[in-house]
Amino acid sequence: MLQEIEEQPRALAETIREERAKVERLGKFLRERDIDLIIMVARGSSDNAALFGRYLMEIRTGIPVSLSAPSVYTLYGARLKLDRALVIGVSQSGEGEDINRVLARARECGAFTLGITNEPTSTMTRIVDETLLMHGGREQSVAATKTYTGQMMLFYMLAEALTDGATPKLDFEKIPEYVARALALRPIVEELVARYVFMENCVVVGRGLSYANAYELALKLMETCYVVAERFSSADFFHGPLAIVERHFPIILFAPPGVTLPGVMSLLERLRELRADTLAITSERAVAELCTRSIRMPEELNEFLAPIPYIVPGQLFAALLAEAKGLDPDKPRSLSKVTRTL
């Protein structure tokens, strides 16, 4: 897991280089097709990447994006009207049976189908109209890291390809370098995990473009550290879940700059009153001053480029915490790399 976390700058740069021309052609084709709905279908970490894609695509393109409920297709056999829809399947292995069945059914219903996967010879690639590939090499760790960020990168590229020329560019080409800088924070994370060795439960908070990272870090903590980790947006956390917080209760927050920051600050002020144990991944001095502990990110990172670099300290935290607990993050109990469900 740690090796694959370290591989991410190279993997992301390779994905940009290898898929750029294909994504640009695909974007032109989809604009001409006049797509007015995008549906994502995924499970696990890929579902978290799709959640990020939903926020980014809606913000950048104005096209409504829905996260599919696979059982609507696989168990209830519903036939949807998808003539002007783009249906995107997201799967590290490309072998998820429910994901592939949804893609096949969506294509029958008139949708243009796109697969995002790490495996060029997988079943998914034979089902969809077009495929976008991650280029990080085979992922061995059960806990996805480089494929999660690789999927996010492809959503950056696709979102930009679907926008008109008047929309300011995202400069996603800078992200691999920011990820390399985030990896340099490993000594700080190693020092931090010693304080959380006996953590059994926690909450992870993020909002907007960082909401998916809250889901992803919580999943990593559950599958590698066996920590019961709930995830919320900073807004939703005020609506009931705040009642679980007591003195020293651990809460991890993604707090990048941008429009979601005031809400995070308000939550942190309340958590400070409750004497919670707060750990923020942030570039903001004001956030760090409100928290028990913080991991400081580069100040020049804007909210649109932050999601991939910000998850890297979270990945390191989960892998290193597992080791500190005497667990093997590469062999989580009861799990396998490919999960087959319907």
Automatic annotation (TrEMBL):
It comes from the Bacteria. GO terms for biological process: carbohydrate derivative metabolic process. Its EC number is 2.6.1.16. GO terms for molecular function: carbohydrate derivative binding; glutamine-fructose-6-phosphate transaminase (isomerizing) activity. Coiled coil: none annotated. It holds the Pfam family SIS. Keywords: Aminotransferase, Repeat, Transferase. Residues 26-168, 188-332 form the SIS domain. PANTHER family: AMINOTRANSFERASE-RELATED, GLUCOSAMINE--FRUCTOSE-6-PHOSPHATE AMINOTRANSFERASE, ISOMERIZING. This is Glutamine--fructose-6-phosphate transaminase. It comes from Pyrinomonas methylaliphatogenes. The lineage of its organism: Bacteria, Pseudomonadati, Acidobacteriota, Blastocatellia, Blastocatellales.
